[in-house]
Amino acid sequence: MELAQQFNATWGLARISHAKPNDTTYLYDSSAGSGTCVSTDSLSSYVIDTGIDITHPEFQGRASFLADYSGEDTSIDGDGHGTHVAGIIGSATWGVAKNTILFAVRVLDSSGFGETSGVLAGMQFVINDAKQRQEKGQCPSGVVANMSLGGEKLQSINDAAAAIVAAGIFLGVAAGNDATPVDYWSPSSEPSVCTVGATAANDTLIEWSNYGPLVDILAPGVDITSTFPGGRIRTYSGTSMAAPHVVGLAAYMLGLGAPLGGLCETLAAQATKGTIDENTLPKGTQNLLAFNGADASRLYGRRRIRV
């Protein structure tokens, strides 16, 4: 293991690797995200979304298209949302876990919309595919999945999300952008998933983030730069951007040997506590900001890796 230092990182990457704000470097273990799927020494991250531009150079050949349940019968990310999310999880420059394998499971169409039936089919696909890979000896460190999508509360969606978790897959989901309790939305209201709210660079909960006791952890979600189809980058805001910070962090931690069981609770225990302005936190929302556990003091006496 060796601590790497990425200079001029996005504020989100910098924030999850420092206990205090206003830094511009991302500190992380250089093995971030290794050990999980596709081969016997790698880890996989399923992105249940609009797809991924797998040709984007930032993915370095680590992204693959697996399935389309959007109804459009295409592997192309015509919206860009999924590519942006995937970049936060594991792209070379903008990603948290820079070694993870990325799998596109397309359940939303080129307008960013999807039918419940398609979303449910994509979720079941992830369960089946991960099981098959693990039976072949792949994914030795574990599997993570991201759902930066949601809608009005549906028990069928929550049950499917719970089934993903029960299958031994870490599932991070966006809390939603409705400025309401997550209790009214799916899959964010499912207690067994890891639900993520969004913060701004000034350490406040952004006013449109959903909230409440079912939000497990907070992460950067405002003005986040990441990958976009066509080899481009874009800057977006939303809990859709917060969730992949945590899913990337889950992949990062699994790559370092963290146990899969109770990983959301582990991330919450490791989080920076009390740093978000309490005046912006609705009652019952936990003051826990995602943190990768990097310690700047470890840089001294070790070789620094410039990224």
How many beta-strand segments?
15
Please state roughly what percent of the residues sit in beta strands, choosing from under 5%, 5-15%, 15-25%, 25-35%, 35-45% or over 45%. Answer: 15-25%
Q: Radius of gyration in whole Å, from Cα?
A: 17 Å
Quickly give the CATH architecture: 3-Layer(aba) Sandwich
Give the class-level CATH name: Alpha Beta
Q: What is the H/E string?
A: EHEEEHEHEEHEEEEEEHHEE
The structural domain count equals 1
Average of the residue pLDDT scores:
92
Shape: globular
CATH-derived topology? Rossmann fold
Span from first to last CA?
A: 16 Å
Unreliable residue stretches: 297-307
Biggest sheet features: 7 strands, parallel
Strand order of the main beta sheet, please?
A: 4-5-3-6-8-10-11
Helix content: 10-25%
* Structural class determined from secondary elements: alpha/beta
Count every helix, treating DSSP H or I runs of 4 or more residues as helices: 6
Query: CATH homologous superfamily name?
Result: Peptidase S8/S53 domain
